[in-house]
Amino acid sequence: MDAELLVAHVLGVSRAGLLTRDDISEDDAARVGQLIEQRADRVPLQHLTGRAPFRYLELAVGPGVFVPRPETEQLTGWALERLTGLDGPLVVDLGSGSGAIALSIAHEHPGARVTAVERDPGAIAWTRHNAMARVAAGDTPVGVVEGDMTDPALLSELDRRVTLVVSNPPYVPDGAGVPREVADHDPPLALWGGPDGLDVVRGLLVTAARLLTPGGWLGIEHADQQGSALPALVRAHGAFTDVEDHPDLAGRPRFTTARRA
Ligand SMILES: C[S@@+](CC[C@H](N)C(=O)[O-])C[C@H]1O[C@@H](n2cnc3c(N)ncnc32)[C@H](O)[C@@H]1O
After folding, report:
1. Of 93, 123, 133, 188, which is the most exposed, with the fewest CB atoms less than 10 Å away?
2. pTM value surpassing 0.90
C-alpha cells in the first residue's frame, strides 16, 4: 500500500486514480524508486509525501513534528461528541504537534474556541503552519500558544472556564522498544514520558483540574499497557469523577476520560 501511495504521490493522483494509469515517465519512475528506497530505510510514509490524513483534514508533516496516528481520531471523536449542542465552548489541546486534534475540533465544531499548546519550538512551527492553512480554508481560527502543559501558570486566564481539555501527551516509557520510523523520525519530546511513561501526564492532570469548569471533560490518550495505571492516576488526583477507559478499534486500551468534579 505504501508503494502505491508513493506512486500516486509522484503522479499527483489519488491511490484509486492509479487504476486509470498504465504508463509512467522515466523521470517519475526514478523519483518513485528513490522514495521507495527511503521508505525501505524506514523513513515514515508521511514524511515522504509531506502529508498526513486525520479525520476530515490533511495536515502538513515532516521532520520535527509527530505524525498523527489513526488511534487519536477516536479520542478526537469522543471529544467532539462531548461538545454536541454547545455554542462557542472553550477547548484546550495540550501537546498539539501537527494540530491534528485542535484543528479537527475547530473544523467539525465551528465556533469552538480552541487553544493549541505546544512546547517544542520545532513542532510548533508545524502547528502554526497547519493552523494558518485551516484559516485560509475557512475554519474558525485556533489559538496557538508556546508553553509547557505542566506549567502551573499556563493559560491562567482560562482557569475554571474550559469545557474540554484533550491531550495525546508523550507517554512511551523510557527505554521501551519502538519501530525505527518512530525512534528515528518522531521528535523525542513527543514520545518519552519517564520511567512509567506517565511523568508528563502527572503535570497535565494538575493543569486540567485548574482549567476545567465544574462538569468539564478531560480526555487523555495512553499506551496499551496504561489502561489501568492512567485511570488509577486520574482517580487518585481527586479532582475528577466519572473516570472511564476506552479501547481503540483493535480492542486495546487507548484513552482515559473523566469529568471535573
Ligand atoms: C504524542 S505527540 C501528539 C501530537 C498531536 N496532539 C497528535 O495527536 O498527533 C505529543 C506532543 O506533545 C508535545 N509536548 C511534550 N511535552 C510537552 C509539554 N510538557 N508541554 C507541551 N507540549 C508538550 C510534544 O512536543 C508533541 O508535539
Report:
1. 188
2. yes
